[in-house]
């Protein structure tokens, strides 16, 4: 119920909501390829047309909202999501230097194919990441 209320408030409350595609002149496919290359540095077999296509689909379901710190304390913190660092042990969490333009969501063990909307607050900031469900 809290997630439904949070989703309604985010959508209807007039908060700034920025879809991922509005930031850069680089295509989503190029961004996803770059991000997957970072995550799968030592496992390049996972950077193929199938993984890139699935990655683009996931990437297009991401949005960021700007919401005052302290509102929606029930949001999970980005720092609570484990890193997917099996193929690159040099990955670091984006919490201390969060930048939406360079944020690599593939570094995190998000549930890519959830049937519910998920929200994550970037620790100590006004940014909330929304991951829409698969349609």
In short:
By secondary structure, this protein is an alpha+beta fold. The protein has three helices and five strands; from the N terminus they run αβααββββ.
N-to-C CA distance:
20 Å
- How many DSSP E strands? 5
Main sheet makeup = 5 strands, mixed
- What integer is the average pLDDT? 86
Based on Cα principal axes, name the global outline: globular
C-alpha Rg, in Å?
Answer: 15 Å
* Helix-strand pattern: HEHHEEEE
Query: What's the helix count?
Result: 3
Structural class: alpha+beta
Percent of residues in helices: 25-40%
How are the strands ordered across the major sheet? 1-2-5-4-3
| Poorly predicted spans | 1-5, 7-16
- Our estimate of the beta-strand percent is 5-15%
Describe this structure in words.
- The chain is α+β, with helices and mostly antiparallel strands and 135 residues long.
- It is built from 3 helices and 5 strands, in the order αβααββββ.
- The protein has helices at 2-12, 28-39, 49-59; strands at 16-19, 62-66, 76-77, 118-121, 127-131.
- Strands 1-2-5-4-3 form a 5-stranded mixed sheet, with helices on one face.
- The longest helix has 12 residues, at 28-39.
- It is globular.
């Amino acid at each position: 119920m809290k997630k439904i209320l949070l989703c309604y408030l985010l959508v209807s409350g007039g908060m700034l909501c920025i879809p991922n595609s509005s930031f850069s002149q680089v295509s989503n496919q190029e961004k996803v390829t770059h991000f997957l290359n970072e995550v799968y540095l030592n496992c390049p077999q996972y950077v193929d047309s199938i993984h890139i296509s699935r990655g683009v689909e996931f990437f297009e379901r991401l949005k960021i909202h700007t919401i005052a710190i302290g509102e929606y304390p029930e949001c999970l913190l980005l720092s609570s999501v484990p890193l997917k660092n099996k193929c690159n042990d040099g990955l670091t969490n984006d919490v201390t230097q969060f930048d939406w333009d360079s944020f690599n969501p593939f570094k995190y063990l998000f549930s890519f194919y959830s049937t519910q909307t998920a929200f994550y607050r970037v620790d100590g900031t006004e940014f909330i990441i929304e991951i829409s469900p698969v349609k």
